[in-house]
Amino acid sequence: MDLIALAVPFFLLALIIEMIINWQKGTGLYRSNDAINSLSAGVLSTTFGYFTKFVSIVIWGFALQNFALFDMQLDWFDASPGGIALWIAAALGWDFCYYWNHRLGHEVSVLWAAHAVHHQSEDYNLSTALRQTSSSFLFSWIFYLPLFLLGFPLEILITVNAANLIYQFWVHTQLVGKLGVLDRVLVTPSNHRVHHAQNQAYIDKNYGGIFVLWDRLFGTFQEELDDDPVIFGVRKPLASWNPFWANLQVYDYLLFDARNTGRWRDKLGIWFRRTGWRPEDVAKEYPKLPADLARFEKYDPAVAPGRRRYVLSQFMVVVVLALFIAQVFAERGVSAVLAPCVLLWAQLYTLSLLNDSKRYANRFEALRLLLIVPVGAFAMQNQGVVPELGTAAWAGVLIYVLVSMLWLRKV
Q: Which residues on neighbouring strands pair with residue 108, listed in sequence order?
């Protein structure tokens, strides 16, 4: 049972409710461009994950089968007191490993390169929770290996992982204030707002997934201060609505420093040094100004209302296509989703260009509509992803393209 897939409708419902509250109260918690960028990063992470998630599963399964200290049986995890104790141990163990995965994801440069995606939003709402990286598969599996070496069954740990991620969704909101004693034990919205802050007092704090006790134990806890309002985002702004660039930005500037430093130990070491560290020769030749939060302004390029409506409407198509791909993946596996994923990724890219007000955005969107959409439809038909498209179906594709092109000419 895929708990995260089951939770998706509730995520979407909660998003809609928070958006309605935001609209009614005029709180300004949502900007359509930022929310679309966060959701685009989440869609990209999910769809790219269809091709990469096997990495951790294979490694964990191999470790469990060959090196486990204890042969824990799946039927031990039942509703008996002993079974419940084992479930609790698995959940606590996963959350403990998550703390260290998360903490080192902020403290080690190459791990931050993957995790930074989640922090680039300068707004903070439930859409931020879905803003996830596409490259965590490279290293994150390492931190959970101890649980498999102990012998916890794969099915149990995948379940507690899903529960851990689902819990973290609700804490990405500004509509819930401080919760008293719960703030001392659990990761709550107040505690997690601190984690997403740029403020000096809040940097590198509150890493827990469900329990904030780990932060209290290891000295990384910081409560939200009334006299220091949170400024969300990262010190080196993304300044783009492109979800692909969001995943590459930190890798890019690490590669720049590695390429330009003179010493080989720095070329290699920069990836594994503390975040923010730069080789001395590169820092001298290419200095970076410190962030000035007193002059902080959110990235928000001007976009005409008509273009904004066009992007929002096309993003609804993205959501439908993403749900369709999820169903195809569940039924037919990874080999069946390549063509629709390429179709979706092209749409995410062109919508980001439109939101960024790039001068060539309309040309790329027209290319997507006139070339990539029909070619993608042919590819899905040839792969059997969809039944052979009849006249009515092709007429629907044609109508979508024509209506979109006519609308695009006006924006």
A: 274
Conformational region of residue 170, where left means phi above 0, alpha means psi within -120 to 50, and beta covers everything else: alpha
- Is there a contact between 301 and 239 (Cβ–Cβ < 8 Å)? no
Residue 243: name the closest of 394, 78, 35 by CA: 35
Q: How many residues does the chain have?
A: 411
Q: Which residues pair with 186 in a beta bridge?
A: 211
Closest listed residue to residue 324, CA positions, set 46, 34, 21:
46
Residue 255 CA to residue 250 CA, distance in Å, equals 8
User: What's the CA dihedral at 332, 335, 341, 342 to 10 degrees?
Assistant: -150
Running DSSP on this structure, what letter comes out for residue 232? B
Query: For the stretch 108-123, what's the b/e string if a residue is b when 16 or more beta carbons lie within 10 angstroms of its beta carbon?
Result: bbbbbbbbbbbbbbbb
- The sign of the torsion formed by the CA atoms of 296, 42, 130, 116 equals negative
- How many C-beta atoms lie closer than 10 Å to residue 21's C-beta? 14
**Can you give the pTM of this predicted structure?**
0.94
pLDDT in tens, 363-390: 999 999 999 999 998 888 887 777 666 6
